[in-house]
Amino acid sequence: MRRAVVILIPYLWLVALFLVPFGIVLKISLSDIATAIPPYTPNFDFSAGWAGFKDFLSQLDFENFVWLTEDDLYWKAYLSSLKIAIISTILTLLAGFPIAYAMAQASKEWQPTLMMLIILPFWTSFLIRVYAWMGILSTEGFLNQFLIWIGLIDTPLQILNTDWAVYIGIIYTYIPFMILPIYATLEKLDPSYLEAAEDLGCSRIQAFWSVTVPLSKPGVIAGCFLVFIPAVGEFVIPSVLGGSKTLMIGKVLWEEFFSNRDWPVASAVAIILLLILVIPIVLFQKQQERQQEADS
Amino acid sequence: MKRFTFFNATSLTLGFAFLYVPILILVIYSFNASRLVTVWAGFSTKWYGELLQNQQFLDAAWVTLKVGLISSSIATVLGTIAALVLVRGGKFRGRTLFSGMIYAPLVMPEVITGLSLLLLFIAAGVDRGVFTIVLAHATFSMCYVSVVVSSRLISFDQSIEEAAYDLGCTPFDAFKSVTLPIIAPAVISGWLLAFTLSLDDLVIASFTTGPAATTLPIKIYSAVRLGVSPEINALSTLLIGIVTIGVITASLVTKRAALHRKRQEELAAQNH
Amino acid sequence: MSADIFAPWEIPKEIPLIRFENVTKRFGDFIAVDNLTLDIYEREFFALLGASGCGKTTLMRMLAGFESPTEGRITLAGEDIAPVPANKRPVNMMFQSYALFPHLTVADNIAFGLKRSDMPASEIDGRVDEMLSMVQLRPFAKRKPHQISGGQRQRVALARSLAKNPKVLLLDEPLAALDKKLRQETQFELMDIQEKLGTTFMIVTHDQEEAMTVASRVAVMNGGQIKQIATPDAIYERPNSSYVADFIGEVNLMNGKITSCTSKSCKIAWEGGTITAQPTNKLEKGTEVRFAVRPEKISIAKTKPKSGNAVEGKVLDIAYLGNISTYYVETTTGQTIKAQIANARRLSRRSFTWEDPVWLSWSDTAGIVLTE
Closest partner residue to A193 among C96, C101, C116, by Cβ? Predict the structure, then answer.
């Protein structure tokens, strides 16, 4: 009996504040803006009973989704979000792997400190970390000053308010998510695998490619998912560092909601964003489960 | 057979430079006398002074702190219970849905979480303000807390709890006097995580707040959209300083406790 | 020494395959291997036996090329191997953890070394197949390491390390992960394979039974030094020090003083009277010595036996082990001596029980005099 109470408290909380709101989004995405008071309808009336429910069903329509397919802004935003997320995931992997590798090779006494140095920025405000790049990437910013000073360029590059600034922002803020799982697999890697590879005739570089890289695959996959999934729905980075041409679906949703006040369309955008993310999330879950089985 | 090569040293140096130089620049230029944020014009703390006189920022800071403290405390209680249910709850109807609801918010884009909660509050006719932000923050941070706490619950030897039952504890008694002290470090780090998540959140707060309550991230965001400004640099430096001191203190405390414990174990081994 | 017994170490002109010459290895202040000299001959099955931390693994890893000696020289077939990196040495190692690559199949694991050798690609499959047949794992070629049993993994590791036909195979605690029954079976398999291939095997182990079973010679190591190198029976029957006598099997060690001695036999005075034991060489009268008697060489009786060495006492404890029983007998002078008696009869008809007064006796050749 008491066990039931213990289970029910968090259960009901999550149902009320996670599941129900989610249902509302789904419902509104299927309603009509014209009859919106507050800006959406139908409102499901419990007192009307079954008839009310049927009435409610008959009012649902998919025109918001049709609208999304017709207006190529949304198509472009979805595709552009995916493109930006994929490119920045690859860049984060390229930047993160050598760091994770070097951490795993460092002496045992240093490893906890290095770990903390990787995690520490994560504790400081995300918004501030993104903001810090504004002063660096602007045309009169530190990066341009530096590049001109070393003589690499003559005129300042336009980096801020382009997709490149978004890539840099995503790499910067999400790189700990890439480093930590890769480091975890590399650190667990039994050094006798490498010794065995050398014993069987591999040079160190061959041993790296034929043993270390394949065996770090679970960490690489986990890291890529951990960067890719939040990057797709990212709002702060494109909005602070990206330009008006940088299309990302999180930003579109925000604007649809706050500027256009079109709640049904915003909800439909949210639903489709989620549908896009369901595939990588499920794949990620599957991979984690497989990993757990393999570890045990 | 580990070899620390030049290549490794280079990647670590570049990696940490990448992580820390932007923050460092931000901190240094918060002490710049000039309003031009990329030109150094001498040392000054005047932006800090202006910041402390800016009533809007102070109000926002107060709201943020209030929301953070309340929501992280609720999240810690709920998240710990949820972790217990997940790890020790056994089988019950709707378990899959429950674990799904715990893990889904971790991967859910913030814009969607924010939007859905806002629509709920409107449908329920709740006035938006501090209260709704607290509910929203408590909901998504309880999931983080429960993940942190359940990993600790999984890793500790369950026979310790069984021993407590064997010696006559009721389930609640066993939780209070055995389980809770053991998972306490995880509960505390869960609370800290929830607190920083709440301090940090812009998107969900923007959706769920009303005209009456503005949090610091919302305030910073609206200022940032206008460009880099020395006041924001000063504010950021203050926030970074507080967090850094907090995290370093926490890690030193745990490190010292671990060291102390190790020394005692060595001593005990020698006595034997 | 008849010609058909394998004992190259007895032949003065025989050139050893592996020589450790005054090898020292330090890790910081810690001396893992201390000025050690050792010869190992071709076709030998050589066992390094010792407790953990005695330096046996370091010695093996220096031969494999994963550590280099701080001082001294290691030669393989007459050549100094110091400049040869691990991946170029004609030495392969079977790791304690097996270190089978989890992302590769059994066949790919075995082929791993071959693909990095001069062997033409066309011959690799044939060689892999040959190795798989040798360890009876052909049906499992396509499986991954986690899909086969522990014993099978052990055989894959063996096949992988033998695939390149190394001059020396190093085995680092190869059977430690197996349960006792499987370990015993595998010991004989290892011996068969070694005999068939004629490859020199060097095994590192802390399990004395394993070393005694498989090895042609055993080196007992302690503190980075070799205490004794000999054939298994010589190690057991003629240990050269109390450490070796105590490390291998069970033993009763007692202190005494030489009263008279020839090179064949010594009289020793000790608390329990005077006994006769075998020395390794002639000793001066008055030398402080210890003598060692194995428990199974001591017999137990109600009355004093007519000949041999005897000592009186009473039964303190009996450990019943099924096939044998160990009697702990306290002598009149207060020492405890272990005697092992085979349980040829049923337990209910045991001749002695607790507190019984008994006589322990052993022959003049059973005791060994030790000076170290």
Answer: C101
CB proximity A133 to B under 8 Å? yes
Contact A196 C146 (CB under 8 A): no
Q: Is residue A209 part of a domain?
A: yes
Is B18 within 8 Å of chain A by CB?
Answer: yes
Q: Is residue A189 part of a domain?
A: yes
Secondary structure letter of residue C115 according to DSSP? H
A43 assigned to some structural domain = no
Q: What are the pLDDT tens digits along chain C (372 aa)? A: 444 678 888 888 888 999 999 999 999 899 999 999 999 999 999 999 999 889 999 999 999 999 999 999 999 999 999 999 989 999 999 999 999 998 899 999 999 999 988 899 999 999 999 999 999 999 999 999 989 999 999 999 999 999 999 999 999 999 988 998 999 999 999 999 999 999 999 999 999 999 999 999 999 999 999 999 999 999 999 999 999 999 998 899 989 999 888 888 888 988 878 888 888 777 888 888 888 999 999 988 888 888 788 898 999 999 888 888 899 999 988 889 999 988 887 766 667 888 889 999 999 888 899 887
Residue of B nearest to A117 (CA): B16
Sign of torsion over alpha carbons B131, B132, B138, B139: positive
- The shortest C-alpha distance from C111 to chain A (Å) reads 10
How many independent structural domains does chain A possess? 1
ipTM metric: 0.87
Alpha carbons A178 and A100: distance in angstroms, whole number: 8
Domains of chain B with bracketed CATH: 6-271 (1.10.3720.10)
Any alpha helices (H) in A71-162, and if so which ranges?
72-105, 111-123, 126-137, 142-149
Which chain A residue lies closest to C112 (C-alpha atoms)?
A200
Contacts of C88 (CB under 8 A, 6+ apart): A201
Of B70, B87, B72, B88, nearest to B190 by C-alpha is: B72
Question: Does the beta-carbon distance from C116 to A206 stay under 8 Å?
Answer: yes
User: Residue for token digits 């190394």?
Assistant: C166
Nearest residue of C to residue A191, measured between CA atoms: C99
Q: Which of A195, A200, A214 is the closest to C116 by Cβ?
A: A200
**Verdict on whether the full-model pTM lies above 0.90:** no
Query: Any chain A CB within 8 A of the CB of B93?
Result: no
How large is the average pLDDT for residues A273-287?
A: 86
CA distance A161 to A241: 5
The C-alpha atoms of residue B76 and residue B82 are separated, in whole angstroms, by: 10
Contact B78 A105 (CB under 8 A): no
Contact of B2 with chain A, judged by CB distance below 8 Å, is answered with: yes
> Nearest-CA distance from A104 to chain B in Å?
9
A170: domain range?
Answer: 67-295
Q: Residue A80: give its domain's CATH number.
A: 1.10.3720.10
User: With an 8 Å Cβ cutoff, is B178 touching chain A?
Assistant: no
Spell out which residues of chain A touch residue B139, defining contact as CB-CB under 8 Å: 13-14, 17-18
Q: Out of C86, C99, C113, whose CB is closest to A192?
A: C99
Map out the domains of chain C with their CATH numbers.
8-243 (3.40.50.300), 250-370 (2.40.50.140)
Angle at C321 between CA C318 and CA C326, to 5 degrees: 40
Percent of chain A residues past pLDDT 90, beyond the cut: 41
Amino acid at A18: F
**A131 assigned to some structural domain:** yes
Is A123–B243 a contact, with Cβ atoms under 8 angstroms apart? yes
